[in-house]
Amino acid sequence: MGVRGLMPLLARFAPKCITMPLPEELAGWTVAVDSNIFVQRFFKGTDGGVDSLRHLRGMRNLGRHVRALGVTPIFVFDGKLRALGKEVELSRRNMDHLRVLSDLEREQARAERISTMNDINMQLLDAPAAQTSTDRSTAVDWLQGQVETLGGKEKPRHVTINWRIEQLEADVCRLLLFQLGATRVLEGAFDTCVDSTQALASLQKYHMERLATLRRRTEPLTPDMIADCVELMAALGFATHVVDGSRESEGVCAHLCRHGVADAVCSEDLDVVVYGARLLRGFYSAGGAAAAMRLVDFQVACTELGLSHRAFVDLCILCGTDFASTIEKVGPITALRLVHEFGSIERILDSGKFRPRPGFHFQIARDAFMADAGSLPFSSKKEVADCSPPADPAAVDVLLPPGAEDRGALDARDPFARGLGLP
Predict the structure, then answer these.
(1) 98-107, 315-324, 367-376, 393-402: segment of lowest average pLDDT
(2) Quick check: helix, strand or coil at residue 60?
(3) H-helix segments, 147-279
């Protein structure tokens, strides 16, 4: 999503365009919110169970956060049609879906292993650990195999949730082996949990959270769910707009900013900067924290890089966007050098020195980013304030019945920080 490698490039060559505003500095701002990104985050996020209202609760909490900061929002949502030319993004989403399905199969296999561990633990509770039997021998062999398979994996450079849960599995298997008398450990080695039933309960909890998250990620976010979010934000008294035709919400948000209707766009999508607007990233995270906000200023970026808007768009296309593939052997730094040297993508290609990859439809991408604003839902900040509907608590209660409180794991929480304390 957005432009590959753009933030590191700006941090190196245009550092003044990136600032870190404090939450209290946003008071009085009007911001255009790229709402679908937040809805997706809340809908797909980690949760302790299946919760059909999570996306609505997330949007309600976002609304509370906005009010607490003294910010006037415009919640802009994507319509049913999407912009043409985003084959790269669609391909990426398909690949992400396949990865989720693969992870789901992995968790289903883990469920079978946890079931076997539970069976072994129940046998331990029913019979002395020193009892010699064929079942015990089989259990020991199986547990040792799991320790070798799961616990013997090298720690990856980027630690994943799956790797951490596998280490917990290996720890539980070691604990069961110890209780079966098949291994010896030093006294005090189990500093967190020495009870196999408790250890299995912890493992089961993390597994179920992961399984629920993956199952949720395979579920589609339907137009009706988006419509409910639009209705909720209006019922909370906020200005809303659903993008019509084939425009993208981030593009409409960017044009609202460029025309002075908004001070910035709240999104994680770097396309906002390519459209020519100020982007506010990290505006809202789990728990409502906004300490990691970054404000990316398009005008300052162009000034520091010495580029026009069109040249900046070409730079971003060369880096890689959702609209087009890229040129072989051209990364962000090389792209910046080439734009300075040749001035445009056409001249870069005309030099005959570079070969575009299949799908390098740079003109489609350029047209999308350089398109006119078209009809905007609001013409001024005053109109946004005047057109914000009155709050409707009764409508809010219909969408979010009283008592629908937050529950489950927070997206930012790391439940695997300590592990089970096993060797």
Answers:
(1) 98-107
(2) helix
(3) 161-179, 196-218, 223-235, 249-258, 271-275
